[in-house]
Amino acid sequence: DARVTQTPRHKVTEMGQEVTMRCQPILGHNTVFWYRQTMMQGLELLAYFRNRAPLDDSGMPKDRFSAEMPDATLATLKIQPSEPRDSAVYFCASGLGGRGFPYEQYFGPGTRLTVT
Amino acid sequence: QKEVEQNSGPLSVPEGAIASLNCTYSDRGSQSFFWYRQYSGKSPELIMSIYSNGDKEDGRFTAQLNKASQYVSLLIRDSQPSDSATYLCAVKGNAGNMLTFGGGTRLMVKP
């Protein structure tokens, strides 16, 4: 059953705490994307990787957010310190990227983050 | 001007009717176009991809692309209440793997 998995599904934390979200892309996919979705801003791209290398993180607040791919089966998004304005749903998506590939992206179930 | 624009809706159609969802984009070099369906509280689900001008049909769904007009649409025939969701249009530009998403159109199908 090929799906993107994300943990945790829900996270409630206090302002100033560190938050780590994890994503396991679909086996064989070489691109991984992190998105944030809010009612006001919609779906925003935070960062993406191809073959584990970061290609774009221009959508990410650099001072508090970091994204990594320690190996091909794990992507992480970390917020330190967290702030109430970070409250949102964070989605991971994966796909096959590169010339000749269809560029379709498949989303995980998301992590709903609430920062109080 | 947003890069990918959709009417936020809600678009309300009666059960059995055709729902027509529209999307315009600003990057003339865009190559690939996608429609995602997102139920409330769930993640976006890919339902259609289209890469060349014309129509592409898959079951009750038809995607239409007109690159000259920078316009892509999704038709849902025989709409069902279970089609009630937000439909997101996504566009891939000329370079890279990134998709730009529209704000979504909320569709309501009334029994």
Question: Layout of helices and strands, plus pairs?
Answer:
The complex is a heterodimer of chains A (116) and B (111).
Chain A: E1 5-7, E2 10-13, E3 19-24, E4 31-38, E5 42-50, E6 53-56, E7 65-71, E8 74-79, E9 88-95, E10 105-107, E11 111-115
Parallel strand pairs in A: 2-11
Antiparallel strand pairs in A: 1-3, 3-8, 4-5, 4-9, 5-6, 7-8, 9-10, 9-11
Chain B: E1 4-5, E2 11-14, E3 19-25, E4 32-38, E5 45-50, E6 54-58, E7 61-66, E8 71-76, E9 85-92, E10 99-101, E11 105-110
Summarize, please:
With 116 residues, chain A is an all-beta fold. Chain A has strands spanning 5-7, 10-13, 19-24, 31-38, 42-50, 53-56, 65-71, 74-79, 88-95, 105-107, 111-115.
**Straight-line distance between termini of chain A:** 36 Å
Total number of helices of chain B: 0
Q: What class, by secondary structure content of chain A?
A: mainly beta
- Kindly state the number of beta strands of chain A: 11
* Structural class based on helices, strands and sheet pairing of chain B: mainly beta
Task: Give your account of this protein's structure.
The complex is a heterodimer of chains A (116) and B (111). Chain A is mainly β and 116 residues long. Chain A contains no helices and eleven strands. Chain A has strands at residues 5-7, 10-13, 19-24, 31-38, 42-50, 53-56, 65-71, 74-79, 88-95, 105-107, 111-115. In chain A, strands 2, 4, 5, 6, 9, 10 and 11 form a seven-stranded mixed sheet that branches. A four-stranded antiparallel sheet of chain A has the order 1-3-8-7, with no helix packed on it. The model of chain A has no long low-confidence stretch (mean pLDDT 93). With 111 residues, chain B is an all-beta fold. In chain B, the strands form two sheets. In chain B, strands 2, 4, 5, 9, 10 and 11 form a six-stranded mixed sheet that branches. Chains A and B meet through strand 5 and strand 10 of A and strand 4, strand 5, strand 9 and strand 10 of B.
